[in-house]
Amino acid sequence: MIVPQPCARCGGEIPPERVEAMPETMVCVACSQEMGGEFTVIMTPERISKEGSLKKNYGGYSTRKIRKPIKPKNSE
């Protein structure tokens, strides 16, 4: 059973369903919507062609998630 945790922004309770779906979350759904999302996701194409080749051969994409700064709701 997942234990609900407090939101780092408003102090409210994060639903257990959200914690189960996103274990790294620190904010509730309402605060995440107000912030425009909790993370910035950066996708970079991976090039697998030989160095100096004119043919662009992309193998896939690598992703990075960067957490946005979380300021308490009452200080905004």
From TrEMBL:
Zn-finger (dksA C4-type) intervals are: 7-31
Q: Which InterPro entries match?
A: Znf_DskA_TraR
Residues in domain Zinc finger DksA/TraR C4-type? 7-31
Which is an annotated Pfam family here? zf-dskA_traR
Checking SUPFAM superfamilies in the record gives: Glucocorticoid receptor-like (DNA-binding domain) (SSF57716)
Instruction: Give the molecular function GO annotations.
Output: zinc ion binding
Q: Which domain of life is it from?
A: Bacteria
Keywords of the record: Metal-binding, Zinc, Zinc-finger
Q: What name has this protein been given in UniProt?
A: Zinc finger DksA/TraR C4-type domain-containing protein
Species assigned in the record: Gemmata massiliana
